[in-house]
Amino acid sequence: MLLAASLAAQDDAPGAAAARHKEIRASVELSAIQKRIDTGQLPKIGFDFDSAQLRADGYPALDLIAEFLLSHQSLKIRITAHTSSEGGADYNQQLSERRAKAVKGYLVKKGVPPPSIRFKGYGASQPVASNDTEEGREKNRRVEFSLIRREWDSVY
Fold first, then answer.
1. CA geometry: angle at 99 spanning 94 and 105, to 5°?
2. Residue 144, class by beta-carbon neighbours within 10 Å (0-12 exposed, 13-18 middle, 19+ buried)?
3. Helix axes 89-109, 59-71, angle to 10 degrees
4. pLDDT by residue (tens digit) across 20-75?
5. What number of CA atoms fall less than 13 Å from residue 83's CA on the CB side?
6. pLDDT tens digits, 80-127
7. How far is CA 87 from CA 53, 81, 94, 96, 98, in A?
8. To 10 degrees, what angle do helices 2-38 and 59-71 make?
9. Cβ pair 112, 66 in contact under 8 A
């Protein structure tokens, strides 16, 4: 019985390695899309001031993310939304949650299955630039995407 389990594990190893390789390639692809957004090669996913309504100029980037997810149906993605420090901490937290949820809603409307999308708002808690200048605040108002993976072995 122990030998059979060992052999089964060995047989599964190539499949697991192939799946891991596919996941790494997908992560690189998603990182490339995120970098294009961050550098302005793709329009930034934006919102009007004090709003969770997506601006249409960000649709091309979101459409690319949707296309990516539809071509990698086995993957899950996390959307994180961030704000500048203007406004109160509680308000910014709630605004970032609403914005992340709006991005998820757009992707779902494009056909991405809802269970493959997680979202979280961080408010102004994770700045990437100084909030002392308008340029810095603009950089801090952002939406980011990352792959997430459930480790089933850790559940048991």
1. 125
2. middle
3. 60
4. 888 888 888 888 888 998 888 988 998 887 899 999 999 999 999 999 999 998 88
5. 27
6. 999 999 999 999 999 999 999 999 999 999 999 999 999 999 999 999
7. 18, 16, 11, 12, 15
8. 160
9. yes
Could you write out the DSSP letters of every residue in 82-120? E--SSS-HHHHHHHHHHHHHHHHHHHHHTT--GGGEEEE
Q: What is the C-alpha to C-alpha distance for residues 52 and 36, in angstroms, rounded to an integer?
A: 23
What is residue 155's predicted lDDT score, i.e. its pLDDT?
47
Whole-angstrom Cα distance, residue 60 to residue 45?
9
The residue behind tokens 């601006």 is: 55
Provide the greatest CA pair distance for the chain.
66
Cβ(126)–Cβ(60) under 8 Å? no
